[in-house]
Write a structure and sequence with these properties.
CATH topology of chain A: Protein Transport Mog1p, Chain A
Radius of gyration of chain B: 38 Å
Structural class of chain A: alpha+beta
Low-confidence stretches of chain B: 18-100
Number of helices of chain B: 11
Shape of chain A: globular
Helix content of chain A: 25-40%
Helix content of chain B: 40-55%
Low-confidence stretches of chain A: none
Largest sheet of chain A: 7 strands, antiparallel
Largest sheet of chain B: 5 strands, mixed
Mean pLDDT of chain B: 70
Structural class of chain B: alpha+beta
CATH superfamily of chain A: Mog1/PsbP, alpha/beta/alpha sandwich
Mean pLDDT of chain A: 87
Strand content of chain A: 35-45%
Number of domains of chain A: 1
Oligomer: heterodimer
CATH architecture of chain A: 3-Layer(aba) Sandwich
Order of helices and strands of chain A: HEEEHEEEEHH
Number of helices of chain A: 4
Number of strands of chain A: 7
Distance between the termini of chain B: 151 Å
């Protein structure tokens, strides 16, 4: 556990300079280093995945702007929004979480997108997996997101 | 041997009667079957013939015309000269009013000199409740042309119009609705009219001769015999004159029967609301939304997250 947090922190420092984004890897999950698309990516043995992106706030927008822009894209791609949650990071940054469902080959996938926005950064936490498997791990995912330090 | 005077008168009358009978038999043999059309003893000519037939002219002309001569009176003129009713320009010249340019639609060509009787029928389809108006307009057309109404029912009107205006009135009537049927029948009575004129001339000549015999009658029996013959000749002359007057009126005024039928009333069709919804245009597409150029937004996807391949 300690090594995961340390790895994420070091990676964030290396890529973002003074950025200090960090997240605690949930129990039963394994972080996957050297991912090209994500700052952090971890999955459990059944394919439930948790990942963190960190992007520039460019064009500069607030939490509402980025949440709306991302929601439009996902809805156009066929995602069905189930709920909107107000969340907060471990370091007190307010965020928004939209929970989606997506039909896929006769099954349903769950996909949670949580955004935290600062003046310079947009941090996106994605969590997803087969709904039948994901639902059993929602509490662990929620705790992991709550452990995020946006920095 | 001396022959008594009354026997002489009796022989003369018998010979005259045989002569008339011979002419009548000749007429019956030669006249076409159609010539018997419409002839009735005691026919009310005043009611049927209209104002033109009320003139004294026809009788006088018929009484004086020669064997081959055609009647000179307008009412007795054949159809070829049926322009007995002045044209619009002629009326204007008479009354001093400006001439109204009306399309001339002569019923016959200028060289046709037969005495023709026209009988036309027009069936019209008019709008719902348009029969009464149509009948009124048809009557107006006939009256303006110098004609009159002969008979009318709820759906049919029989008009009598000057034969010279027959075609023009018929054309106008056809504009009052959609023409469903149209027919015209023409009867040529020239020969019958000519034969009647010849018979009339001979009968009147015979009557004149018998009248002279009446002045030489010696006793009452002779006088009564001659007067009976005069009475018989007078009846025959009246019958022929009546028939000629009837033919003249028939030729001067043609008959146009106009029958009206109404289109069924249009009933508005109620539109089924369900079907109406089906034919509504498709709903508009969703509103045009932000098309951001930020790359990472397009990469936020559960499939990429899970490394699944669609």
């Amino acid at each position: 556990m300690r090594r995961s947090i340390l790895t994420l922190a070091l990676a964030a420092l290396a890529l973002g300079g003074c950025a200090t984004t960090s997240l605690q890897t949930p129990a039963g999950f394994a972080a996957q280093p050297d991912d090209d698309h994500y700052e952090y990516r971890a999955s459990d043995g059944e394919g439930v995945v948790l990942a963190v992106r960190r992007e520039k706030n460019q064009p500069r927008g607030d939490l509402r702007f980025w949440t709306s822009a991302l929601d439009v894209k996902l809805r156009q791609a066929g995602y069905q929004a189930l709920s909107l949650e107000e969340v907060a990071s471990a370091d007190g940054i307010e965020g928004r979480q939209i929970r989606y469902a997506l039909p896929f080959e006769g099954r349903e996938l769950s996909f949670w997108v949580t955004l935290f926005v600062t003046s310079k950064r947009v941090v996106i936490v994605e969590a997803g997996g087969d709904s039948e498997l994901f639902d059993a791990k929602t509490e662990a995912v929620e705790q992991a997101i709550a452990s995020l330090t946006v920095g | 041997m001396r022959i008594p005077t009354y026997c002489t008168i009796g022989l003369v009358l018998t010979a005259l009667s045989l002569g008339c009978a011979s002419k009548s038999a000749h007429k019956d043999m030669m006249a076409p079957a159609d010539y018997g059309y419409g002839y009735e003893e005691g026919y009310d000519m005043a009611a049927e013939a209209g104002p033109m037939a009320m003139d004294e002219g026809p009788m006088d002309a018929a009484a004086t015309m020669g064997g081959a001569a055609m009647p000179a009176s307008p009412a007795m003129a054949p159809a070829g000269v049926m322009g007995t009713v002045p044209s619009g320009a002629a009326k204007a010249a008479i009354s001093g009013e400006p001439a109204v340019a009306e399309p001339e639609l002569p019923t016959t060509g200028p060289d046709v000199d037969q005495m023709l009787i026209f009988n036309g029928t027009v069936g019209l389809l008019v709008d719902h409740l348009g029969t009464a108006t149509g009948i009124d307009e048809a009557v107006d057309l006939a009256v303006r042309a110098g004609g009159y109404i002969a008979q009318q029912t709820d759906t049919t009107v029989i008009l009598r119009v000057p034969s010279g205006k027959f075609r023009k009135v018929m054309r106008g009537v056809e504009k009052l609705g959609d023409v469903q049927s149209r027919s015209v029948q023409t009867l040529d009575v020239s020969e019958e009219f000519h034969d009647l004129g010849v018979q009339l001339e001979h009968l009147e000549a015979t009557r004149d001769r018998i009248k002279k015999l009446l002045s030489t009658a010696k006793d009452l029996q002779e006088i009564m015999t001659v007067e009976r013959e005069l009475e018989r000749l007078g009846g025959e002359i009246d019958r022929i004159r009546g028939r000629m007057r009837f033919l003249s009126s028939q030729a001067a005024f043609s008959t146009l029967t106009v029958a009206f039928a109404e289109r069924p009333k249009e009933i508005p069709v109620l539109v089924d609301e369900h079907e109406e919804r089906e034919i509504l245009p498709p709903p508009p597409p969703p509103p045009r939304l932000l098309d951001t150029s930020v790359d990472w937004i397009g990469e936020v996807d559960v499939h990429q997250l899970m490394n699944l391949h669609r």
